Amino acid sequence: MIRLINTLFGIPLGGIMYVCYRLVGNYGLSIILFTLITKVIMFPLSLVSQKNSIVMVRIRPQLDEIRQRYAGNSTELASKQKELYRRERYSAWKGIVPLLVQIPIILGLIHVIYHPLQHLLMLDSSVIASLLERTAALSGTTTAGLGTSAELTVLEAVQTNLSHFSGMVGVNEILAMDLRFLGQSMAEVPKISSITVLYPILSGMSALVLALYQSKHNVLQRTQGAVSRWVTTIILVAFSAFFAAILPCGVGLYWITGNLLSIPILKLCNMIYDPGEYADQLAHLEVPKMSKEERRAARTERKEKRRRQRVDVKRFNSTKDKRLVFYSESSGFYKYFEGYILYILEHSDNITIHYVTSDIRDRIFSMNNPRIQAYYVGPIALIRVMMLMDADIVVMTMPDLEKYHIKRSLVRKDIEYIYTDHGMTSLHLMLQENALDYFDTIFCYGPNHVSEVREMERVYGLPPKTLVKTGFPLLDSMIEGAEALGDAVNVPKVILIAPSWQQDNILEYCLDETLRPLLGEGYRVIVRPHPEFIKRFPGKMRAIEERYKDDVGELFEFQTSFASSETVYSADLVITDWSSIANEFSYATKKPSLFINTPMKVVNPNYKKIPLVPLDISLRDDIGISVDVEDLDTLPDVVRMLLDKVDEYKEHITAVVRENIFDVGDGARGGGQYIIDTLAGRTSETHARSCDDFVSQWKRILDSGCDDEMERILSEPLLLEKSIPMTKGELMMDVLEELEHAVKGETSDES
Fold first, then answer.
1. Percent of the chain having pLDDT more than 70?
2. What is the pLDDT of residues 69-88, one digit of tens each?
3. Using CB atoms within 10 A of its CB, is residue 404 exposed (0-12), middle (13-18) or buried (19+)?
């Protein structure tokens, strides 16, 4: 290995050091000159890294969007990220090449420092061998015993014991060589008791200066958060100080010089490839400055979340006999569970609902029903909670169970996982391929769900799932809300723009083209972004609100609260792209929807494997009208036409609803009763299993031959309040008599 290092790194770098030493005649200055030369040689690599960093900054908004949009879908995320890198010619390797090149340079420099006879004096190998043998003999050891610093030992021995080396070749050259710089040997490893301790200190300080400069002037580091920058700084300082402490002072001098020279190198790179033109690319990464009060409130909230989570996770895990668990991603998802929960509470007496939510502000916490136990569990802690889940039934609206971070329980293999969708949409189009594979039961809102799941099972060879025909409880509550409004007339008419959140939604694709034609028509326009859009793209949402702040007023607003659906069923018309909100609106109010034909929302690109036309496609022109993006200038005319034909659509949409949704008006019954019946069946099975286990255990005891011990236990007194004292044996006889009566069909009331 040593020979390989010498051949690859030591010899060429030793040649450079030799030239430097001959030029300046001082060992320390030669190291400084050597460092400068290596920086010049590496400068083209620094330029490549600078250009690559600028590319990263330029594509950073696209990269962040990919990460946000495909969060939870690691396969699609990796594919989109790779595609972006290839298209923009970005390579992570280009950024780290200069760092990687430092490794062989340091290895080579270390070899040069430890082998001055070979690299700086250029002595013949036979001459070096003779000198090593003489030094070993003088020290009472072998040449191998001199170790890695053998040539340094020769230097010291010749200069302190010249008489032992008289007449030998190379002695004069050795006597002329001085490895000291500023009075200290560059071959010496720093010691705390020596002034050489300054080398690791100065190395760390130079690294700190470099890191602080880079945080302001390195285009890539400017995009990092404060925490990331400080972590980078700490690592750089620790790395520099550590290696300068364990290696010869010459390496420390190289490190100090290299750190300081990197500052003008970076400045020169910025002059050649100016990142200033991409300054606007940094704007989206800038976090709005908060006041002291806001920062204090944020810290308090984080602490409260951690505290609350610790308490709730402990409480959840310690609660035994959890029968039924609902999991909600955020407060807005309660509305999809509400119908089932209310039905269960009304039609059962002994079922406690354990409601896990990842939103500390979930509305579930405001409910004071003792049969609803609510717990706050953040997304990260949720992973472990789910893996250790102990319950009979878990109900979720989150698909892709077992595919990503949310797994089935490792401790209970008999848990029944139920999926209930949060939209009356096509499962094979709007969910990832195989998103439902690991669920046991699917709540089906209509015939299309039943057909889709059965086709999925056929196409992918899956075992049959339990399909429960249940309505859509949220639709029922929306119908009630719409009917409660009666024939109320909005003045002016209310237009609700409610897009999806996936790529090419109205907000990102054609918001201006949609809004501008309507704002001057006398309508009250409400833009209601999808909850996922706000959660994943808060920066974009802020930018949109800022762009239209001058338009906001009595006739125009953004609505970002999703605790209530009142706005949906009170509107006169909904404009959307591929969002299921059109189904909810038109089904509840019997009013038409207006669809904008943005690029089709396709969550599953392989949806055509299922030979069924997705309801999301077939329904568009059944409950409203579709408009191409190129024709949005006609939007006012289309809106007026739809508003004029409300009565014509009412009867038609009523028939469409009855055709596509089970149990309209009683949507919670199917799912709620299924949960009640399943839990009751689980109880009977458990009771039967317990009786069987008891009998088996009793037989094992009788067969064990412990008659004496049995007699002693049975003769022990058993004190029962308000009863005659009896032994355990007498109690057992009473129990056996009751069992005998039960077998004969004569069970007493007391049994």
1. 86
2. 776 556 667 778 888 888 88
3. middle
365/374 Cα distance (integer angstroms):
6
Neighbours of 640 (CB within 10 A): 13
Give me the residues paired with residue 282 across strands.
none
Query: Is residue 722 over pLDDT 50?
Result: no
**Residue-level pLDDT at 72:** 56
The residues, ordered by sequence, that sit 6+ positions from 548 with a Cβ below 8 Å of its Cβ are: 515, 556, 558
For 600, the 3-state DSSP assignment is coil
Cα gap 492→522, rounded to integer Å: 7
pLDDT on residue 751: 39
Longest dimension (CA), the chain: 121
Total residue length of the chain? 751
Compute φ and ψ for 628, nearest 5 degrees: -70, 150
For residue 492, say if its preceding peptide bond is cis, omega within 30 degrees of 0.
yes
Find, among 136, 169, 167, the residue nearest to 154 by Cα: 136
List of residues 6+ apart from 190 with CB closer than 8 A? 196, 197, 198, 199, 200, 244, 245, 249, 252
CB 401 within 8 A of CB 417: yes
CA distance 475 to 477: 5
Q: Which two tokens stand for residue 518?
A: 């309507």
pLDDT band at 660; cut points 50, 70, 90: very high
- Residue 672: count other Cβ atoms within 10 Å of its Cβ: 22
Give tens-digit pLDDT for 492-535.
999 999 998 878 899 999 999 999 999 988 999 999 998 888 88
pLDDT score of 418: 98
Instruction: Centre a 10 Å sphere on the Cβ of residue 617 and count the other Cβ atoms it contains.
Output: 13
**Separation CA 564–CA 243 (nearest Å):** 61
Instruction: Enumerate the domain spans of the chain.
Output: 2-120+177-278, 126-176, 303-473, 488-665, 705-751
Pick from 597, 642, 600: nearest CA to 623: 642
Contact 17, 117 (CB under 8 A): no
Q: Would you say 356 and 384 are in contact if contact means Cβ atoms under 8 Å apart?
A: no
Distance separating alpha carbons of residues 496 and 413, to the nearest angstrom: 45
Residue 356 identity (one-letter amino acid) = V
Question: What is the pLDDT, as a whole number, of residue 490?
Answer: 87
Contact in structure between 499 and 579 (CB atoms under 8 Å) = yes
Identify the H or E element spanning 37. Answer: helix 27-69
Would you give the DSSP letter of residue 379? H
Coarse DSSP helix, strand, coil percentages of the chain, rounded to the nearest 5 percent? 60, 10, 30
Residue 386 — pLDDT band, cuts 50, 70, 90?
very high
Q: Which strands form 466-469's sheet, in the order they lie side by side? A: 372-376, 353-357, 324-328, 393-396, 416-420, 441-444, 466-469
Bridge partners, 638 (sequence order): none
* CATH code of the domain occupying 303-473: 3.40.50.11190
3-state secondary structure 211-259: HHHHHHHCCCHHHCCHHHHHHHHHHHHHHHHHHHHHCCHHHHHHHHHHH
Q: For domain 488-665, give the CATH superfamily.
A: Glycogen Phosphorylase B; (3.40.50.2000)
211: region left, alpha or beta (phi > 0 left; psi from -120 to 50 alpha): alpha
**Strand-pair partners of 142:** none
Angle, helix 473-484 to helix 334-347, in steps of 10 degrees: 100
Task: Determine the Cα–Cα distance for residues 480 and 588; give it in Å rounded to an integer.
Answer: 8
Give the residue from 579, 659, 568, 590 showing the smallest Cα distance to 620: 579
Same fold yes or no, 303-473 and 488-665: yes
The mean-pLDDT minimum among 117-126, 338-347, 445-454 falls in 117-126
